[in-house]
Structures are given as structure tokens and as C-alpha cells.
Amino acid sequence: MKNIPSLLLLALSIALFYACQSDAESTESHDVTQESHTEQTNEVNPSSTLQNGENNLTLTDQQLLEIGALNQEIKILRQDYNNSVSALIENHGLTLPEFQQQSRLMTTGSKSELTPQQQKVWRDINVQMMDIQMDLQSTIETKVAESGYTMEEFRSHTARINQHPEYKQRQNELQ
């Protein structure tokens, strides 16, 4: 019974690892070559102003640039996270597929199929993965706050940009 919280944390860390991995892959496939802009504007461009239902929320060109830059930084942080986790797994003598198999066994109640040493290594990896994950989350939250946004605002703006092709197009034009 006392292992349930640790198993839940472990499952969460594994899910985040795979989510970050797939997010980084999908982001890579949609990258657009970016040019450096030395001048940014705070003006609202009509082509980047959309109204979001009853909230009448709009994003300025400046916000589009800031959110785009933040997302690029976070993409790099997630890639670093994935590399760190992969190195961690390999440093324990496992390949990613071996670790994934052990994770399935440990989280589905079939841990008896693993030796006590394999179980210990798996637990050690997961503790270290959670530390790396917490560092990643903290770094992301700091970067977002330093840019003047709350995490909720950042998520909301990112979702809005991804849901509205006009925003995405304008963001690409600005970068």
C-alpha cells in the first residue's frame, strides 16, 4: 500500500518523459527557419488581432514574438531533458526499450518478472528522472515568469496561437 504514491509519481514521470519526447519530435517537424529581428513592435497588427469568443482576447505582435521565443527556449530545454534521461538510462546499463519494458512490468503488477537488482535499478532511475523533471519544470516556470507571464497565460496564449492559423502565420512572419 505504501508503494502506491511512489508508483503514481513514477508513472507520471514516465508519462512526462514520453510526452516531452513526442512534443519535441512534433515541434521539430513543424520548425520554420527563423531570422533574427533586431526591432520588435508593441503595435497591434490587424492581421494578428483575433477575438476569442466572449473574452475578446487579442494577441499583439509583441506577444506573438515573446511566446514564440519562449516556446523555442522550452523546446531546447525539453530536448536537453530527453537527452539527460536517455543518458541516465544508458548509464545504468539499459537501453530505452529495455527500460520501457521494465516500466511496463513494474507498473502493471508484474514486477516479479524482474530480479531484485533490476527493480532497484529501475527505482533508482525513476528517482533521478523525477529530479530532472522537477528541475525542468522549475526552469520553464522561471523562464515564463521572467518573460512577464504566468504559466496559465503562457499556456492560454500558446493554445490560442496553435488553434488560430492567422496567429500562427503572423508569428511566423514576425520571426
End-to-end C-alpha gap: 52 Å
How many strands, what sense, and barrel or not for the largest sheet? none
Low-confidence stretches: 1-9, 20-56
Which of globular, elongated, flat, extended, rod-shaped describes the shape?
Answer: elongated
What percentage of the residues does DSSP assign to strands (E)? under 5%
Describe the 3D structure.
It is a single chain. The protein is mainly alpha-helical and 175 residues long. The protein has one domain (4-26, 59-174). The protein contains 6 helices and no strands. Helix 1 (4-29) packs across helix 4, helix 2 (61-91) packs antiparallel against helix 4 and helix 2 (61-91) crosses helix 5. The longest helix has 31 residues, at 61-91. The radius of gyration is 20 Å and the shape is elongated. It starts with a helix and ends with a helix.
Quick recap:
This protein has about 180 residues and is an all-alpha fold. The protein contains six helices and no strands.
Q: Topology, pairings included?
A:
Blueprint: H1 4-29, H2 61-91, H3 96-107, H4 116-146, H5 151-163, H6 165-174
Helix pairs in contact: 1-2, 1-4, 2-4, 2-5, 2-6, 5-6
Features of the shown structure:
6 helices, elongated, 0% strand, 70% helix, disordered N terminus, 175 residues
